[in-house]
Every structure is written in structure tokens, then in C-alpha cells.
Amino acid sequence: MENIALIGIDLVKNSFHIHCQDRRGKAVYCKKIIRPKLIEFLATCPPTTIAMEACGGSHFMARKLEELGNFPKLKSPQLVRPFVKSNKNDFVDAEAICEAASRPSMRFVQPRTESQQAMRAVHRVREPLVQDKVKTTNQMHAFLLGFGISVPRESAFLADWVPFLRTVGCHFISASYC
């Protein structure tokens, strides 16, 4: 374990495939490790550069590896793809991650902090909700125009019109909007 200079990890949900290389790029160690054992394994290795694709779970893992004194490097999966040498599998992917990380001109992604990740998650969840609201409002406007009723574009005005529509007998709007 002393001569490991670079570790490539292919992140999967429950298990990880690791590929370790020495300074000359020669494979030293390849293994499949389950999630709980990965941190134990990396704690026994001397501090080194650990390369991973930037994907789900990679930012958390990068923070954990920094706590152990390692130097995590995340790269976009599109930049790793050209280095896959044969049929795609997790061990070949881990080797390609090492190969890509060893290139001097390779670009890396900065690992996100927990607060950055949380803010991104909020935005990613909010975006489809806003799109659904706009879609539903536009749909209701179209239905109303079908009955000759023109309502101002702001959704607050539309909410004000719902009780009126009930009184005039427009039952085409579901109870969830009323």
C-alpha cells in the first residue's frame, strides 16, 4: 500500500470499484469494496490523490476523503469516457478514471460544500414545481377562454375568479384548485 500514488474509484450505489496505480501508472491494486469498508480501506492507505467522477454521492465522498487527509479530484463523466479502453464495466471505468486523472491538462470539478449541495437540491426540487404551477395556470386560462372568460395573467387574479366560476356553474375546474 505504500507505493500507491493515485486511486481511481468508480462510485456505485452499494459497492465501489477501486483501481490503484503507482507513480509510473502501473496497476498496483484492483478490488470491489462495499460501501462500509471503503472508508476503512482508504484510512489504511497513505494520503494520496483519489479521483472520482462527479456524480451522485461524489461530493459527500470527497468531503470524507479530505477529512482523512487525501486529495480528492472530481471530474466530469464526459471527460472520462474517452479513456475507457474496452467493454464498459465498473473495473474498466475505475481504470479510466485513473488514466484521465493522470493527464496534466485534465480539468476537475470543485467539490461542493454541504450548504452548496443543500441549496442546489432546493433549487432542483423547486424548478419542476414552478413549471407545474405555470403549466396549470396556463391550462386554466385556456379553459376559461374556451368559455369566453378572459382573466388577467397573474395567478393571484385567477385564484380570485375561482369562487365566481363556481357560482356561474363552471364545474370544469377540479375541487383541488377551488
From TrEMBL:
It comes from the Bacteria. Residues 7-146 form the Transposase IS110-like N-terminal domain. One of its GO terms (biological process) is DNA transposition. GO terms for molecular function: DNA binding; transposase activity. Pfam families: DEDD_Tnp_IS110. PANTHER family: PUTATIVE TRANSPOSASE FOR IS117-RELATED (PTHR33055:SF3), TRANSPOSASE FOR INSERTION SEQUENCE ELEMENT IS1111A (PTHR33055). This is Transposase. It comes from Buttiauxella gaviniae ATCC 51604.
